[in-house]
Structure prediction request, 215 residues.
Amino acid sequence: MYNILKTQGVLPLVTQIGIKTAEIILKSASDSGIKIIEFAARSPDAKEVFAQMVNFRNTNNLNIKLAVGSVLTLNDAEGYHKLGADCIICPHTDPEIGNYCFKNNLYWIPGAATLNEIIYANKLGAEIVKLFPADMIGGPNYIKAIKAPFPNLKLMPSGGVTLEENNLKSWFKTGAVCVGIGSHLFSKEILLQLDYNKSYEIFKNLITVVEKSKK
Prediction:
């Protein structure tokens, strides 16, 4: 999973979507070359939608992994794992969730803000740590500062990441493994009228700008 995320350089995030929109996003993402996408579980019907997403992915033999984000409890982590999640992402660091993921060979990306929290997540076994909310805690300069004494930290900033090349370059320049991007990719307005062609265009543009920004 680490190699997929490092190579892709970005983890696209979608949330608050119905199954029809989810199917459009999954098909266009896979066709564009995206290998992993995050579904943030923030709605009452999130488990139902995710179960249908897994079914659609498997039925159509799409080469794409599904991460579930905004997982807050051990119960939810277990539930999404049973539904077919390939990765569990949290806004925080929960030892119980981490332990469950490792016991079940499920990739876990916990969230952290302070250096101590990041180191703690690493000690629990997390390979990549989600830096959240990245823009509110210092942005790229914060990553640069904490990687000075800990150069081997593998961080995924989320929050304040946009599609502008200069913005993306600033994160990669300081050593981010990959970036998480959500609302700047699919706004509520875009989701309301999303079709396959528009979604495919969005993903192809994302891949292009990320590749340019990593150079």
